Amino acid sequence: VxxxxxxxxxxxxxxxxxxxxxxxxxxxxxxDIYRNAPNEKKxxxxxxxxxxxxxxxxxxxxxxxxxxxxxxxxxTFERQLVKLVERALSKNIKxxxxxxxxxxxxxxxxxxxxxxxxxxLQLEHANVQCTDGYISIDASCQTSNxxxxxxxECADCNHSAALAIAQGRVAAESACGIDAxxxxxxxxxxxxSSPEIAQCGSFDTTNTA
Length: 209
What we know:
The protein is of the alpha/beta class. It is 19% helix and 17% strand.
């Protein structure tokens, strides 16, 4: 079935795909773990994202938790803040860089970065440009097609609900002819870790000293 929709302006908010991992076969998505939280289990959380850190913080209270982090933990956060979280995590959680004993865990939880849901949209036919699968937008959330805007995960909001909401507001205002712009550096980033951390603005995310 083919549907033809006519519009003056459109906003794409197609979200992201389910996570997968090349070395893990039987795993669940991190969002699903809170529906039926395990207790006294041996768990492996895969990821270095805020979702991974938050899940590790919560689940380590009643479970034996390991964290498989490929690369720096919380790579988009200022390193001095991250050190506070790493120090706290190391008290209860084993942080690993490789997986050699998958079968030893009761449950494996995927909390890696999610890929954008754009591969089925055929955006090339609408003259909408993408970079690494993410829709390219300007400060007004406008794509390379001036009639089309994009917000959220498909436009690489980096799993930030606050940024996605702000993008939605700016895109709607822009589509209505209002001169609206957004600087994502000044939308707060928050991790519900222990201790909780937040940052706003532009920071050095590479300094490991």
